[in-house]
Design a protein that fits this description.
Layout lengths: L7 H21 L37 E7 L12 H10 L1 E7 L2 H8 L7 E4 L5 H4 L8 H8 L3 H4 L2 H6 L10 E2 L5 H6 L6 E6 H6 L8 H14 L4 E5 L11 H6 L18 H15 L12 H9 L3 E7 L5 H10 L5 E4 L22 E4 L6 H12 L1 H9 L6 E3 L5 E3 L1 H9 L1 H7 L11 H4 L8 H9 L20 H21 L4 H16 L3 H19 L3
Parallel strand pairs: 1-2, 1-3, 6-7
Antiparallel strand pairs: 3-9, 4-9, 5-7, 5-8, 10-11
Helix pairs in contact: 1-3, 1-21, 5-15, 10-12, 13-14, 15-16, 17-18, 21-22, 21-23
Length: 547
Amino acid sequence: MFKMNKAAGQKGVKLCAALLTAVIMITGCSGGSGGSSEGNWVSIEDRYTVNPEKPAWQLDKKEEVTDLTWYVNADWWNTDFGKDIVTKKIKEDLNINIKFITGDDTKLNTFFAGGDMPDLLTVFDSNSPVVQKAATWAMPLNDLAEKYDPYFNKVAAADTLNWFQLADGKTYGYPNYSNTQADYDSGNIPAKTAFIIRKDVYEALGSPVMGTPEEFENVMKQIKEKFPTLIPFGFNSIGEGTGSLGDTLQDFIGVPLETENGEFYDRNQDEDYLTWLKTLNKVYRDGNISDDSFADDGTAFEEKVKSGKYATMLLDGTPQQGGNLQIYLSANEGKEYVAVDGPQSTKGNAPTLNQSGITGWMINFISKDAKDPAKAIQIFTFLLSEEGQLLMNYGIEGETYKKNADGTVELLPAVKDLQLHNADKFKKEYRMGEFMFFGHDRHKALSADAFPEAIKQMQEWGKGKLKPHFILENISPNQGTPEARALSAINAKWNSTLVSMVRAKDDASFDNALAAYKSFLGENRWDDIVKVRSEKMKQNKEKLGIQ
């Protein structure tokens, strides 16, 4: 889920400036060029009559293909449409053609500066001005459903719609992987974080324990000695955030989510966490963390995963790396990566692994410039429905999967074989499990085939270790405020500080970097930011009924 780039500090400053620009642009726009301030409410009088009991895509008699543009604020998104089995079926059933456009925050801002707005738009930051000011440029899903497709309300989660409700009482965006407490309680949500080690390395070292800092440091030395061609320890690409060395490591060792009296807790300065960062610094100084790991982008990291270059990894986003891990497993049976307990809390805390919360991940909107908002809301309804979820995850019944008597599904043998032994071809031709704008974990629980074999043991290891982070969702200061600007600078400073601490040449350099960061907090409204976050945590608890 991380956007990958090298210059984390510079990017943080640029992102802050871009978002500030977006605030100005969004506040002053009415949905791009040529769009009505109220949206393009087309008539469907000659197409169909809405029916609350039937999805509109099954009723719509529009004969010509509807061409739609869909902007995704991520350079890595696969822009193909209609070539693989999943999107080809969507194209046929809904009689649409989608042109995907991708980009970054700079590209996103050009739309709000007067460029032609896309019909649909997907972003990833729920706290951004794009999301918070959605009423100025997007069409309300409540009204779209009422006018064009009331069946939407049957497939959309009421809790999720309420969570995204803006001050006007309407909801404009809907995410994927929006999990409620009930979803967590169901046991259907698999862990996405794991400390993994190559099986051949693990067995050669006698299945070592790595729970304490001393044990971890010692095992890294053993790996370097016995497997000199491998990088002993790797982690997700640093990117804009801190890779898996930030909150992922904090979750792994169970750093508290709040203070004892329910206020915001600065997890970056937790004693347990800092102890492990000092350990990683020692591992780095021993030559067992590569300098490349701090510069690699997402593609470079993935290539190393595919080739098994890392002996061990703290990996966040195992499903996202599932294809790469499967490619490695298929070519190296017996040497595949397996999850083990790895680093543990020095305080005795249990892991509090995070998964998608109620905010989800990809947030999808229909713009006021949408050429055919009726068809656009039909896409939302279709992909949220049972039919759409089965298609996105498993393809077409009888062609790629079969249903069992107990309600579970399984891939057909030839499809399963391709998934196991030719992951690249499977991804290109089928795209199942990838086209997930409105995906949800509960549908993945329907089948053992929902995830590649390479990560199933990792998910099994994670059972019982998940803890919802609902209270920490969307607690950053509102964009455009002094606190928000200060936080952007603080986040950029922390990214560079964390790297400096792990790469410090000695203990004194480590301590100096941390001390400089603490001073920076004091100079940049940190106390005010903590107050804002604590207040928003309180609001989250009230919204969710958490005592």
